[in-house]
C-alpha cells in the first residue's frame, strides 16, 4: 500500500506549503490528536508456592490457595481478586454495553410468553406450575380435570377462579415465593413427588446456608406442612403403602447417599432405618415402580451394582435382592402384571455390551431368579429408553442413527425365546426431520392411554407431544411458534397466545398437529468427519439460508463428550441472534458422549479422553478446510465437562480458534480428583480416572487443561463463566484464567475474561437472557475485531 499512499503524502505536504501563510498559529498550537484510552490491564492474583507429589511425580500449583475454603485469609484474598476480575471484564466489554442491551432485548422478545408449564393429568387431577405476575418463583397448582375441559394454562380463568360457576377451581399446592421466605430469600427445589392417593407431596428445598437439601412434606388437603418426617441431607424419596409411608435417602457430610429410612405419616414412631452403606464409594438410590407396587433400591459402586425390591404395601417387610452384576451399570426395574422388566447396559455373559437391552423375569419363580431377553439384538434398531403403561410399552429407539418413537401392546406373550421388535408390529409415531433428542415427560399415570414426550431438533423449538397409545396419534401440547412470536395451544380445545384471540380456535385447529419447523429458514446438515485415528465423528451444522457465504461466515463449535450424555443440540432461541448475523452453529458429537453406544462413551473416558479432544479438533479443522467457517472466525463453546474438552483443544491448537466460551468448566482434574474440595461420585472417577491408579493419573495429567497451557504463544480470546454454586468450584475457573495469563503472550485483542454469577441462572429467565447476551456480545466483539 505504500506506493499508493506516498503520492498522497507528497501532495499533502505540497498543499501545506502553499497554504502555510494562511494558517492561524494559535489553532495549530493548541490542536492535540485524540488518543484512545489504554486497554485495561488484567488483574494479577497473588501466588503462593505449593508442591504436590503422587506416584513419584511432583507438580507445583501457585494458585492452590484459591480452594482453601477454610482459610479466612485466603478467602479474603479471593474476594478481592473476584472483585478485580469483575471490574476487568466490565472494562473490556464496556464498548459492548449497547450491543448487550440490544441482544438481550432480542432474546427476551423471543421468550415464550407462556407463564405455565403444560398441565399433565394424573388420575382425576391436572398438575402444572405457573408464574404469577410480579413474582420471581412459580406456584405448583392442580385442578380437577373434569372441570377443565377448556383449560387455558395462564391468565384464564384468572388465579384459578371460574367466573361462570362462581367457584375457585385451582388449588395451590406449593408457592415457591413463600418457600423463598423460609429459606433466606432463595428457592431451589431438587425433587418433588405427589403421593399416589394425591393427599401429600414430598419435596426437597436447598438450604444454602447449610448447603444441603431439606425434606418437606405437605398435606394437600389442609395446605399445611406435616410434623414428620423432617430430615436434612435428603437426596431421594419414594412413596409406599398408598401414600401412608415415605421412604427417603440421606447423604453423609460428603453428600454421598448412604442411608435409607421409612417414615409412617401420621405416626409418632421414629423413622426406621432400612439400610446403611458406609463404604466410601457405595451409593444408594430409590424409585417406585410405575404401578406403585414396589420400591426399587439401587446400590452401586465402581465394582458392582445391585437392585433390591421392597413391597410397597409393607415397606418394613425387608429387601429382596433381584439383580446384581459386576461394575457400575445402569439398571432400571419396572413391574407389569406379574413380571419384572430390567432395562440395563450391564455386561452380558462376561462380555461388555454396546447398548441397553431389556430383560424379563417372573415376579414369583422357584429357585434362583432367571432373566430372559425380551428382544433379539438388532444393530440397526437400538433401544435408547423405555417407558411402561398398563397397556403398552413405549420405546425410544435409534434406527440407522435416526431417533424414532414407537409403542407395542402389553402384555408380551410369554416365551423362552426373544423376538424381533418388528414381530410385535410396533406403532411408529411420525416425527419431523433432524430430531436430535426425545425426552420422556412426567408420565406418572400408569393407567393412562396418553404418554408425554418432548421432541427436540436443532431447527425446531421443543415440541411437547401427547402420544395416544390407543390410536397411535399425537397432539402437540406446547411449542413456541417463533414465526408468529407466540406459543402454541397448551391444553384442551381453547387457545391463547400473544397475537391470537382466545376464541379463534377454528384457525388453530387446522395447524394443531403441524410442527413449527424452521428448516425453511435454517439449514441443518449432517457431516461425517474423519478423526486423527480414522474414526468417523458426526458433525451437525446449522446456518441461515440467507446469510450463508462460502468461507466467510463466523462459526461456533459446541462440544461435550463426557458421561455418555447426548450433546445438547436443541433449538435455542438465543442462538437465533447469531444465526441471523451470519454465524454457523456446529455440534461435534465426539467420543465420550452419548447416542452411539457404550464403546463410544468408553473410548472417550479416562486414559482415552484424548480421543474426545482429537475428535473436536478434527471437527474444527473440517469446518475451516471445507470453508464452512472463515479461517480466522471460529469460536469454541463448552459447558461443564465440555469446558474441559474445549480448553484442552485450545492447549493443543491455540491458533485454531479465535475465541471460546467456557461455562462453569471443569479445568483442573488433577487437583480436583486427587484432593476433591466438593464431593465426587464413582461416575466422576469412572469418567476421568482414579488418581490412585498410576496409568489413570498419567492420563489425567496429559488432558488436564490447567496442567498443559502452552508457554510463549498467543491464545484465543476466552470468556470463562463460573458460579459460586457450580459443582466444580469457582476456583477452577479462576486458577485457569490466572495461569493462562501467566504463561501466554499478552494481547489486549485476545483477552482472557472471568465472568461470575452468584445465582443459579437456569432458575431465572432474566438472568438467562443477560448471560446469553453477554456471551454473544463477547463473540461478536472478538470476531468482528
From TrEMBL:
It comes from the Eukaryota. This is Uncharacterized protein.
Amino acid at each position: 500500500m505504500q506506493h499508493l499512499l506516498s503520492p498522497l503524502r507528497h501532495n499533502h505536504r505540497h498543499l501545506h506549503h502553499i497554504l502555510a501563510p494562511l494558517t492561524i498559529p494559535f489553532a495549530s498550537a493548541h490542536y492535540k490528536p485524540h488518543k484512545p484510552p489504554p486497554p485495561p490491564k488484567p488483574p494479577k492474583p497473588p501466588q503462593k508456592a505449593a508442591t504436590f507429589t503422587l506416584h513419584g511425580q511432583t507438580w507445583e500449583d501457585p494458585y492452590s490457595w484459591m480452594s482453601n475454603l477454610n482459610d479466612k485469609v485466603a478467602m479474603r484474598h479471593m474476594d478481592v481478586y473476584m472483585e478485580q476480575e469483575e471490574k476487568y471484564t466490565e472494562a473490556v466489554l464496556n464498548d459492548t454495553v449497547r450491543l448487550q442491551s440490544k441482544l438481550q432485548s432480542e432474546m427476551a422478545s423471543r421468550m415464550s410468553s407462556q407463564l405455565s408449564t403444560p398441565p399433565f393429568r394424573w388420575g382425576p387431577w391436572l398438575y402444572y406450575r405457573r408464574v404469577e405476575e410480579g413474582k420471581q418463583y412459580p406456584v405448583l397448582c392442580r385442578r380437577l380435570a373434569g372441570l377443565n375441559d377448556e383449560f387455558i394454562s395462564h391468565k384464564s380463568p384468572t388465579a384459578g377462579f371460574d367466573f361462570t360457576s362462581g367457584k375457585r377451581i385451582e388449588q395451590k399446592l406449593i408457592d415457591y415465593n413463600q418457600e423463598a421466605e423460609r429459606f433466606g430469600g432463595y428457592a431451589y427445589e431438587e425433587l418433588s413427588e405427589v403421593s399416589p392417593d394425591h393427599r401429600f407431596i414430598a419435596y426437597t428445598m436447598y438450604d444454602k446456608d447449610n448447603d444441603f437439601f431439606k425434606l418437606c412434606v405437605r398435606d394437600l388437603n389442609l395446605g399445611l406442612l406435616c410434623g414428620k418426617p423432617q430430615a436434612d441431607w435428603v437426596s431421594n424419596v419414594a412413596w409406599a403403602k398408598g401414600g401412608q409411608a415415605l421412604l427417603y435417602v440421606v447423604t453423609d457430610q460428603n453428600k454421598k447417599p448412604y442411608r435409607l429410612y421409612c417414615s409412617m405419616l401420621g405416626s409418632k414412631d421414629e423413622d426406621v432405618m432400612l439400610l446403611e452403606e458406609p463404604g466410601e464409594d457405595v451409593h444408594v438410590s430409590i424409585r417406585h415402580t410405575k404401578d406403585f407396587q414396589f420400591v426399587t433400591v439401587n446400590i452401586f459402586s465402581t465394582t458392582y451394582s445391585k437392585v433390591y425390591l421392597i413391597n410397597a404395601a409393607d415397606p418394613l417387610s425387608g429387601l429382596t435382592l433381584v439383580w446384581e452384576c459386576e461394575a457400575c451399570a445402569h439398571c432400571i426395574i419396572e413391574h407389569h402384571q406379574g413380571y419384572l422388566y430390567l432395562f440395563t447396559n450391564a455386561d452380558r455373559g462376561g462380555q461388555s455390551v454396546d447398548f441397553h437391552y431389556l430383560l424379563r423375569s417372573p415376579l414369583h419363580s422357584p429357585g434362583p431368579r432367571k432373566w430372559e431377553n425380551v428382544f433379539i439384538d438388532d444393530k440397526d434398531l437400538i433401544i435408547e429408553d423405555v417407558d411402561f403403561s398398563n397397556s403398552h410399552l413405549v420405546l425410544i429407539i435409534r434406527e440407522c442413527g435416526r431417533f424414532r418413537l414407537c409403542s407395542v401392546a402389553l402384555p408380551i406373550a410369554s416365551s423362552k425365546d426373544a423376538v424381533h421388535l418388528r414381530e410385535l408390529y410396533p406403532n411408529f409415531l411420525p416425527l419431523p426431520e433432524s430430531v436430535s433428542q426425545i425426552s420422556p415427560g412426567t408420565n406418572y399415570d400408569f393407567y393412562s392411554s396418553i404418554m408425554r414426550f418432548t421432541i427436540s431438533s436443532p431447527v425446531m423449538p421443543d415440541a411437547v407431544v401427547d402420544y395416544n397409545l390407543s390410536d397411535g396419534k399425537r397432539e402437540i401440547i406446547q411449542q413456541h411458534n417463533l414465526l408468529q412470536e407466540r406459543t402454541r395451544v397448551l391444553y384442551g380445545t381453547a387457545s391463547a397466545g400473544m397475537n391470537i384471540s382466545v376464541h379463534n380456535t377454528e384457525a388453530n385447529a387446522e395447524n394443531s398437529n403441524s410442527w413449527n419447523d424452521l428448516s425453511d429458514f435454517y439449514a441443518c446438515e449432517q457431516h461425517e468427519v474423519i478423526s486423527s485415528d480414522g474414526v468417523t465423528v458426526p458433525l451437525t451444522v446449522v446456518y441461515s439460508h440467507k446469510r450463508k457465504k462460502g468461507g466467510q461466515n463466523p462459526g461456533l463449535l459446541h462440544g461435550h463428550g463426557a458421561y455418555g450424555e447426548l450433546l445438547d443440540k436443541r433449538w435455542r432461541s438465543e442462538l437465533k441472534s447469531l444465526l441471523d448475523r451470519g454465524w454457523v452453529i456446529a455440534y461435534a458429537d465426539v467420543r465420550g458422549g452419548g447416542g452411539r453406544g457404550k464403546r463410544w462413551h468408553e473410548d472417550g473416558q479416562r486414559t482415552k479422553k484424548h480421543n474426545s479432544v482429537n475428535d473436536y479438533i478434527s471437527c474444527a479443522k473440517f469446518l475451516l478446510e471445507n470453508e464452512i467457517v472463515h479461517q480466522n472466525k471460529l469460536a469454541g463453546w463448552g459447558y461443564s465437562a465440555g469446558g474441559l474438552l474445549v480448553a484442552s483443544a485450545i492447549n493443543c491448537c491455540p491458533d485454531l480458534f479465535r475465541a471460546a466460551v467456557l461455562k462453569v468448566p471443569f479445568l483442573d482434574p488433577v487437583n480436583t480428583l486427587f484432593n476433591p474440595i466438593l464431593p465426587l461420585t464413582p461416575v466422576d472417577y469412572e469418567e476421568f480416572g482414579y488418581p490412585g491408579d498410576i496409568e489413570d493419573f498419567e492420563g489425567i495429567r496429559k488432558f488436564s487443561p490447567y496442567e498443559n497451557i502452552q508457554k510463549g504463544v498467543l491464545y484465543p480470546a476466552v470468556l470463562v463463566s463460573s458460579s459460586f454454586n457450580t459443582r466444580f468450584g469457582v476456583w477452577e475457573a479462576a486458577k485457569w484464567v490466572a495461569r493462562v495469563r501467566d504463561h501466554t503472550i499478552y494481547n489486549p485483542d485476545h483477552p482472557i475474561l472471568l465472568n461470575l454469577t452468584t445465582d443459579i441462572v437456569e432458575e431465572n429467565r432474566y438472568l438467562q437472557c443477560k448471560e446469553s447476551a453477554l456471551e454473544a456480545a463477547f463473540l461478536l466483539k472478538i470476531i468482528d475485531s
